[in-house]
Amino acid sequence: MAAPVPAGFQFAIDRGGTFTDVFARCPGGRVRVLKLLSEDPSYGDAPTEGIRRVLQEIGVAVPRERPLDTSRIEWIRMGTTVATNALLERRGERVALLVTRGFRDLLHIGTQARPRIFDLAAMPAALYEEVIEVDERLIPQHPDARPSPGCTGDTLLLWRPLDLTALRRELERVLARGIRSLAVLLLHSYAWPGHEEQVGALARALGFQHVSLSSAVTAMARAVPRGHTACADAYLTPCIRRYLDGFCAGFAERLRGVPVLFMRSDGGLTPMQHFSGARAVLSGPAGGVVGYAVTTYRQQDGQPVIGFDMGGTSTDVSRYAGEYEHVFEATTAGVSIQAPQLDINTVAAGGGSMLFFRSGLFVVGPESAGAHPGPACYRKGGPPTVTDANLCLGRLLPEFFPRIFGPGEDQPLCRDAALRALRGLAERVGAGAPGQHPMSVEEVAMGFIRVANEAMCRPIRALTQARGHDTSRHVLACFGGAGGQHACAIARALGMKKVFIHKYSGVLSAYGMALADVVHEAQVPCALRYEPAAFAQLDERIAALEQECRQALAAQGFSSDQIRTEAFLHLRYERTDCALMCSAKGHPPTPGSCRAGDFAAAFASRYRTEFGFTIPDRAVVVDDVRVRGTGSTGISCESPLAPSGEPPRVETVTRCYFEEGYLETPVFLLEQLSCDHSIPGPAIIIDKNSTILVEPGCTASLTELGDVCIAVGSGRPSAVGTQLDPVQLSIFSHRFMSIAEQMGRILQRTAISTNIKERLDFSCALFGPDGGLVSNAPHIPVHLGAMQETVQFQIRRLGDDLREGDVLLSNHPCAGGSHLPDLTVITPVFWPGVPKPVFFVASRGHHADIGGITPGSMPPHSKALHEEGAVFVSFKLVKDGVFQEEAVTEALMAPGRVAGCSGTRNLQDNLSDLRAQVAANQKGIQLVAELIGLYGLGVVQAYMGHIQANAELAVREMLRGFAARWGAAVEAEDRMDDGSPIRLRVQVDPQEGSAVFDFSGSGHEVYGNCNAPRAITLSALIYCLRCMVGQDIPLNQGCLAPVRVIIPKGSILDPSPEAAVVGGNVLTSQRVVDVIFKAFGVCAASQGCMNNVTFGNERVGYYETVAGGAGAGPRWHGRSGVHTHMTNTRITDPEVLEQRYPVVLQRFELRRGSGGAGRYRGGDGVCRELLFRQDMVLSVLSERRAIQPYGLRGGSPGALGLNLLLRHDGPTINLGAKTSVPVQPGDVFCLQTPGGGGFGPPGDAGEAEDGAEPAAPRSFAERGSLFEYRRAQEAV
Hints:
One of its GO terms (molecular function) is 5-oxoprolinase (ATP-hydrolyzing) activity. With 1276 residues, this protein is an alpha+beta fold.
């Protein structure tokens, strides 16, 4: 059906970082599309200039110096990167943070996890520059305090009243400094916002121009993300307001009477006056998701769609299957924003991503050439990029591009410059692979394209399979300027059969804004169980929120029949953290449900889809009630094409390079094609804003609306031999990692325990037939390389007793275990006709309890291994395909037969998680079999060896470089608090790039639990080598190939089989890292401890590790309040801690001055005070209470840690480093964690020394659920 003809001009505009896209419908129905630079000295504002040009084209005289006449403008819709760019570049408003006293550094500490585990330095800067602490405190209910009713259904207590008098003076002081924007974060304000509202009223009265209350910006539990969101809002909203003021000034009467709507991060439009910073970060990309969702998804067949938006710097991937997929907390540029956002994953290479040949690998990005200088072909001396590779292959045609390149911005794309840049890469490839057949420029360019494609396939697989979807059953909706050249290859690699490219794909984000609905959302927190007793309250809250949404949309001019509302409940199983935002759509109300629908059935269905099971006997809790109201605009912007009756006109024929070599390739103009045209590949279809490559074996046709639909053929498989091919090496690197990643997703989906499902405390890996590690993902530092020891032990021990259908279970330190709760499940992979395993797959997961003398199986005072839980050396968990439940149950309960010990306290979770580990391994076997079926066993095993050799090459290069700078022999020593030495001597061979790491002279095995199994030292060594290499390399057996490790038997680093080891895993591992870095001069000592704290009684139990100070390095200050090296555990949010456990967190802030002085300062530790509200037992397992973290090269050491117990009846007790002690209500545990050492003499401001540098910053901000999953996996 043809679109209704507009009476006036309708504008939909996406103001991006480089280009601004304009989609305009003119009176009479004519569509005008244009692209212009977002920044240009010839005009002030790009969207205004775009509107001016469209008006001028139809004869309206519009001088630039005069405001535009709005009489003929029907509406304007916009998305903008103003907020995103301000966040990325830290160019927002000056902000002060106002926070509950005792928590001034809460947002600095955050989750305490570092964002990239191998980056020793980089951490994102805070958005605020001043902190005000205010006296006030609400806590969950306690019998001795005055209640204050919360809006969640919980009762809060006024523990400390709000002191506005003292606050006034602090606010006036901040105003005097010129700060006019304020973010307010008071603990538990999401449940009762009264204190925040009083603070906000005072601040506005004093003259603050913008105040962001955390309870108003996002009324959800968890103080850290809510505080970050309030800061982001205070930081960005004034920037948006300034931009909007400038935009309105370009129009007569400042756009009065013209509906102006802006796209929010959740995919809905909102009036300009309601557009705010916290909801604006994905404003532009959200329009693209709406665009492909509306135009590609067909309700009739329900085939889901993957959105593939490839721009200049990066690629965005998303999914649509009839409903928008939202996340409710996501991180952009280091800032967690707690607000509904479309799940748009910025994942990989873009057209401007730079090409490298590093250590034998083809590498694409993440660094980008940007707009200036841009790719080499832009004629500004830029580096080789993906765009240059496409140009060299004939896939981009300069004659169809505007002449806007070169210093004068008046030249065409330069193919010669691209060829020169790729020729230089080809020479480096040849030099790095002597003796091999030299690769041509085209082969090198094609190799980089294939590697870029595989890098983009990996996250698409993860996005679909993580939620139980089949990737191949999706349509690939391609848009963005660079995506059309890659779409066929990516769809083919993923098994997809159809690619859809909208006729406005080059400006689809702008077009999506023309199609979007206006959205108003309302949400309130909740703390009710989903059960009949609560249904009336839930229905009442839903009705109130629906009414709010309807009134807000009616005020914008929508009639009642244009308004739709949808209710959601944020649901989770009790005693879990995995909440799902569920609509009751498709689940009508029943007598046993709310009036709004059967949310229990919806939750169970969604949970089963995502995780493969439900927990039917567990209560379901409602965290939030949300209603999304939409005002449908009913706008349609498409008109059907008439068939031409003629064959498609070939504009020209060019030569384009494919796997088969150069092929004659016809070129067509999209505007000249009709809906009866079919174009077999190879072909190129060119639009004004994009180039579409139809590969051989694919066929493009036009729909009746003029969109391009490509049927993707299977293509001819190219023969791959066993000889090393650097392109295939890079592709296999991605494929091997993808196997490990997908195993991890299956484990996370099917496990039941909090540790594995939510904390993601597990690793999955692929091993060769000799047990050598091939790929390990994601990377938990203390697991790195350790599983290799476990697999190789089983091969040596069992030999020919390994049969198909067997699955092994092991955790013993002598068998490569780290500590007993880490259970490793190993499955051999067999192939027909081969008698022995051809690969192994394994998964290691931290089980919350496996018995022993204390709950949690991590006793601070254990003296023998049997006190720490159940032990498995070579246990057949599955035998001949049968899960040995009875036998493994007996083994898990066996510790209970020892006096003072208990069997596992959580048997059902153990069994469920072990089954999940078996399932994850089975997925690995399936994926290995698919890879062998595609390439052949010989090729896959050969590339396993090549990948290991590649990691070996990178480590050898690093060791040669070190020997050239510092000499061939180095040594270092540090001591544990009991005086046990850790000694290391390293002898480097500069010619071979090899080294001997000799730990001879390290202390004897100790009568305690700080003994570290050999596997721990190897994990620490791999971690250190990866940090020192300074770039992404495959983490596998090859990392240790150039290294010989000598560890004396019977020492603290290789104890006897029955020695206690739990402290070795969490404490000694840190000291080993400090000693290695000391020997190499990488950085000063970090806190050297994980500060393990456990408390509980017969009703509750809690465990945490606590951050400290990081060591400074030759080019950086140590980070304060962060986990370092062998751990990266996230800490429980203060509000969640106080809701679930009988404690009050009185204080959590930096321990100022505890970092060592130096040219570069060590990071400060933290002070953390817990007040107990019930009788419990407190256990502490810590280090660096007697031996300070060393400084380096003249830097001062960091401060010692201290564990104090302040008894409610007076005395203060130093608990020492390792103890268990009963505590009573009113007792306070004060934990002061160590600081990091300083680097270089204090006061010396000389040049930075050579040495390990922090990793180069990425050139695009990763975001989306895939990024959050990886961050969570690395934060364990």
